Amino acid sequence: MRIFKENQRFRQWWLIIVLITIVLASALPLFSEISLNEVKLKSLIAPVISLLVFVLVFILNLETRINSKGISAGFEPLPFLRRNYNWDEIQECFVRTYTPVSEYGGWGIRGFGRAKAYSVSGNKGIQIITKTNERFLIGTEKPDLAKRAINKNFKNYKK
Predict the structure, then answer these.
(1) Percentage of residues in the chain with pLDDT exceeding 70?
(2) pLDDT value, residue 15
(3) What is the number of other CB atoms lying within 10 angstroms of the CB of residue 66?
(4) CB of 87 within 8 A of CB of 153?
(5) What are the CA-CA distances from residue 23 to residues 9, 28, 29, 73, 108 (Å)?
(6) Is the full-model pTM beyond 0.70?
(7) Pick from 33, 55, 51, 52: which is nearest to 42 by CA?
(8) pLDDT tens track for 120-147
(9) Which of 14, 16, 22, 105 has the smallest number of Cβ neighbours within 10 A?
(10) pLDDT exceeds 80 at position 58
(11) Strand, coil or helix: what is 114?
(12) Sign, CA torsion 30/35/37/38
């Protein structure tokens, strides 16, 4: 396999419950104001923001690609969250098991300094270590296919 493409979305049941709870809790003051016909603009801020976060989480899509040029990953449709690594920038690249909570503080856009991660769920990831010692992990639900694509493309590049 020369080309690897994967799309992942946040669809965990517990996340949906947490987000719905936040939206409803932030809207409670608004409901009481509506019943009294005294809606204030400041009462709309929290429910609108929490609803926007809820919608954003559901439209975000972790898109990963491995091809002959390198590896790219990003949360679409947000272009500023895209990371691209050409093979000539990469010192090591492999699939590994990781512990999301203890290593990165959970799933999502995580990490500090030179160690960062993009993950949606699970505990398998594509570990990239650059020649400048930056570490970037991309969560994957297809570790075997990712491993084959890395082995094919990275080894061919090194030759």
Answers:
(1) 92
(2) 73
(3) 30
(4) yes
(5) 20, 9, 11, 29, 20
(6) yes
(7) 33
(8) 988 999 999 999 999 999 999 999 999 9
(9) 14
(10) yes
(11) coil
(12) negative
Going by DSSP bridges, is the β-strand pair 124-130/108-112 parallel, antiparallel, or unpaired? unpaired
Question: What is the dihedral sign for C-alpha 80, 58, 122, 95?
Answer: negative
100 by DSSP, 3-state: which?
helix
Cα torsion angle, 119, 123, 124, 126, sign: positive
The crossing angle, in degrees rounded to 10, of helices 13-35 and 42-59 is 160
Query: Residue 61: beta bridge partners?
Result: 76
35 pLDDT above the threshold of 80: no
Q: Say if residues 121 and 141 touch (Cβ distance below 8 Å).
A: yes
Which helix or strand (DSSP H or E) is residue 110 part of? Answer: strand 108-112
Question: How many Å apart are CA 31 and CA 51, to the nearest integer?
Answer: 15
Token pair listed for 28 = 């409670």
Sheet holding 82-86, edge to edge: 4-8, 61-66, 70-76, 82-86
For range 100-118, the mean pLDDT: 83
Q: Which residue has the tokens 């969560």?
A: 139
Pairing status of strand 4-8 against strand 61-66: antiparallel
The count of residues in the chain is: 159
